[in-house]
Write a structure and sequence with these properties.
mainly alpha, about 0% strand
């Protein structure tokens, strides 16, 4: 069954478990695997340019196994968070401490935020709720209001906090994107409350509820496990958020929609996002790397996303591009010549 390949995501909790149960260099195994082995392997595996036929697409759309796998990530994420709260208290060298924190951070980014993103696009409350819960495990609940109501609307324009401008440094983008999207999420929800004639503090304001939940989660961790564990959890969450913002950076770097004679931006097309068909990152990130089609149709389930000739292509997969982006001169040298505008 085609859905089974996405169960490769279970490699992540496996290597994190090894990190949590060992000392020394093995605490860094999640980083070594996902930012060492994966980018290296993608140089030797041909990109996947195949799309489903119409008949296959209909069949795979009705296959619930794709969604059940997303549901499975929730107990895995919660279980590993609780495991993390205990193992981070063991006597550790500083490097081992950071290895375990970053391992949990990769879980927060890949499962907490990425799967939360996929479920947050679904048109039913149950899936959205699981997505919200996953995002809460990364302290990044504001992602959904801005991503769905702001990013998808303003993508590839200067108005979008999550679109990196040409020659913008990754490190300044982290700060601009995260804090601007947080402020925009409040604006979007406050505007929605005004349109419904409700006070901004009304319980229907998602940002109010999300903020309360974030503080309650931190308070619970503090009361049960103490200050040190709470700070380590914040460190893991920040790591996950940095991974998210790095992905945001590479997905739309330098993309710019044109304006018509009336001053309105053209519709979002498949050439307004960078695409990657490199297979390992594609599978481990639930087809997130077919980002061009995702922005063309945000409600399309991950297994159905297509690759098309008009989508600008990354030279390698997401993990490799993320590594490249941390070296700005090299990133600009590789990517600026690929930008058509």
């Amino acid at each position: 069954m085609r859905a089974l390949k996405y169960f490769s995501i279970l490699i992540l909790p496996f290597v994190v478990w090894i990190s949590f149960t060992n000392k020394g260099w093995m605490t860094h195994l999640p980083a070594i695997v996902f930012f060492g082995f994966v980018p290296l392997l993608e140089f030797f595996i041909s990109p996947n340019k195949n799309n489903f036929t119409k008949e296959e697409e209909q069949k795979e759309k009705e296959n619930k196994l794709y969604t059940y796998l997303l549901y499975l990530t929730l107990p895995i994420q919660i279980g590993f968070l609780i495991f993390f709260f205990y193992v981070i208290q063991e006597p550790l060298m500083t490097s081992e401490l950071f290895g375990r924190i970053f391992g949990m951070g990769i879980m927060c980014g890949v499962i907490g935020i990425n799967v939360g993103h996929e479920l947050g696009h679904r048109n039913n409350r149950f899936d959205e709720f699981i997505g919200e819960f996953l995002l809460l495990t990364s302290l990044n609940t504001h992602f959904l209001p801005y991503h769905n109501g702001g990013h998808h609307f303003n993508v590839a324009t200067p108005e979008d906090a999550a679109t990196a401008r040409k020659n913008e440094l990754l490190y300044t983008f982290w700060i601009r994107s995260h804090f601007s999207s947080y402020a925009e999420a409040w604006k979007l929800e406050n505007n929605r409350m005004r349109q419904e004639n409700l006070h901004w503090l009304h319980p229907q304001n998602r940002m109010v509820i999300y903020t309360i939940c974030n503080f309650l989660l931190l308070l619970l961790i503090f009361l049960v496990f103490g200050k040190f564990v709470m700070l380590c959890f914040i460190g893991a969450s920040v790591s996950g958020i940095i991974l998210l913002e790095t992905v945001n950076y590479i997905e739309h770097y330098g993309m710019l929609r044109t304006k018509n004679e009336h001053g309105r931006y053209e519709k979002v097309k498949r050439n307004h996002s960078w695409n990657s068909d490199h297979q390992i990152g594609q599978i481990l990130l639930f087809n997130l790397s077919r980002h061009s089609d995702h922005h063309y149709n945000g409600s399309k389930h991950y297994q159905l996303l297509k690759t098309l000739p008009e989508s600008p292509q990354m030279p390698t997969g997401y993990p490799g591009m993320m590594l490249l982006s941390i070296f700005p001169p090299l990133w600009f040298w590789v990517m600026n010549k690929r930008i058509s505008n």
